[in-house]
Specification:
Layout lengths: L3 H13 L16 E6 L4 H8 L7 E6 L10 H11 L5 E7 L9 H10 L4 H9 L4 H5 L5 H13 L10 E6 L6 E5 L8
Parallel strand pairs: 1-2, 1-3, 3-4
Antiparallel strand pairs: 4-5
Length: about 190
């Protein structure tokens, strides 16, 4: 059953009672930071609290595993928009321990797709078109290595301006403790 009705009913009350007023801010991040984090449910409120962030402080981009898997994909574009158009001057890539992407089995996911009605012919067509679905769907083994790989892609991106610190961290989704894995202030690439 869809939760759409409940959400719309709540939203009507939210707007009517002007509960949005404490969240009014501009589109520009006050702390001039853009954060790429995982979409894990445990991080929705924990990550901003653990970083002392409030509404309006940062731009937050979410992806499964906090992964930048293509230098010209949507995640990288979002980071560049934040830097060039929305006044962010620091990038934080934050993975987390116990991440679901660390155990994603692409073959099991493809089977789940088939079970939910995706025809094998579609999967074959995508593979034939040059996309290796097994590789594209594959998770990672170690979150620190994954964060460092994403940091490297962003740091070395030809469109990322020199001097923008690209930091890599891993958060404990139980305690909120942040472990620094790459201090972007220590790098000067380009």
């Amino acid at each position: 059953m869809s939760s759409l009705g409940d959400i719309l009913n709540f939203n009507e009350k939210f707007v009517t009672e002007k509960q949005y007023e404490p969240f009014i801010t501009t589109k520009y991040p006050d702390k001039k930071i853009v954060v790429l984090s995982c979409m894990d449910t445990r991080l929705v409120e924990l990550l901003p609290k653990a970083m002392n962030l409030r509404n309006g402080d940062v731009k937050i981009v979410k992806s499964a595993g906090a992964i930048v898997n293509h230098p010209f994909g949507g995640i990288m574009r979002s980071l560049l928009v934040a830097v060039y158009e929305l006044q962010a001057d620091e990038v934080y890539i934050i993975g987390h321990y116990d991440c679901g992407m660390s155990s994603v089995d692409p073959n099991a996911m493809l089977e789940h797709m088939r079970e939910r009605g995706i025809k094998q012919e579609i999967i074959d067509l995508i593979n034939y078109s040059g996309v290796d679905l097994e590789q594209w769907l594959r998770g990672f083994g170690d979150v620190t290595t994954s964060v460092l790989k994403s940091v490297d892609i962003v740091r070395r991106h030809p469109l990322m301006p020199a001097g923008v610190p690209i930091h890599g961290l891993v958060i404990d989704p139980g305690t909120g403790k942040l472990d620094l894995v790459s201090d972007g202030n220590a790098f000067s690439i380009k």
